Amino acid sequence: MLPLSPSFAQETLSEDEMYQKRFELYAKMEAVTQIPWYYFAGVDQYERNVRRVRKDIPKQTSIIGIYIKPEIWAGPLNPNSEDIHPATIQFFNGIGQDGNGDGKADLNDDEDLLYSFANYLQSYGTDEENLKIALWDYYKRDKTVALIMGHAKLFKVFDSIKLDKHVFPLPLHANYSYRNTWGDARGWGGRRMHEGTDIFANYGVPVRSTCYGVIEMKGWNKFGGWRIGIRDVNNTYHYFAHLNGFAKDLEIGQVVEPGQMIGSVGSSGYGPPGTSGKFPPHLHYGMYKDNGYNEWSFDPFPHLKSWERTERAEKRKR
Ligand SMILES: [Zn+2]
């Protein structure tokens, strides 16, 4: 494989070539460590997502998104935190290893980086239970382990690392209306800020998954009524509330794809389970992000508009 300098990687590779290179690296590490490629993809995707939203980590400049702090790479007691000599790094218990066989353990080399992380994982074993323990010891956060495992599952099931397609939550031929209500006072249920967009439609209109994702939550809540939460590979949490009911056999932990029916429009919520009809039927749709520490909501309206536009354009083409 040709060595790729970080700047070369970012400036001249198309998106598809980037995915291809990434996948080749995962596959190579699977061959070396016997750990299935989708776990590497899961960790890498998680780290890339976190890097996009955090300011305390350098921006990603290469193909692999994993970030290892120099002092962890070189070893905490290593006087040279920029060390690239495998022997001294090993002596100081650093994680850094030479993955591409050039005699250097270079933190800025994608192959060295992924190989080092793969080696760390492999020291715990190659099965899912041991990988989870390795990830917990590394990140010290249950949520992070769950997110990585969720990403890995998506990559495995769809056998692809390119899972960024989105669609509008309702079928475009349905009768619906929505406007930007981000930050409005809630029409129903008190003073909390409105964290989402309300899409008004009739009872029973199908509600579809907006993304490739894992069902993270499904159930009743006093305000949201029957709700579903789906986590996609970009670490965005898609939230669907006030449903009339759920699609059959839908379970927490299950993967879904864009356009897959997950439930239907209703007016459930604002009371104990079963309460319905306290407001006009609509889908409350929200989007949330996670930065490795906490979650926050952002405005879904521009995304809804863009998915709707893209889907209409695709329909016209067909
Ligand atoms: Zn709402």
UniProtKB/TrEMBL annotation:
InterPro entries: Cell_wall_metabolism_enzyme, Dup_hybrid_motif, M23ase_b-sheet_dom. The keyword Transport does not apply. Keywords: Signal. Pfam families: Peptidase_M23. The keyword Lipoprotein does not apply. Residues 192-291 form the M23ase beta-sheet core domain. CDD domains: M23_peptidase. GO terms for molecular function: metalloendopeptidase activity. This is Peptidase M23. It comes from Sutcliffiella cohnii.
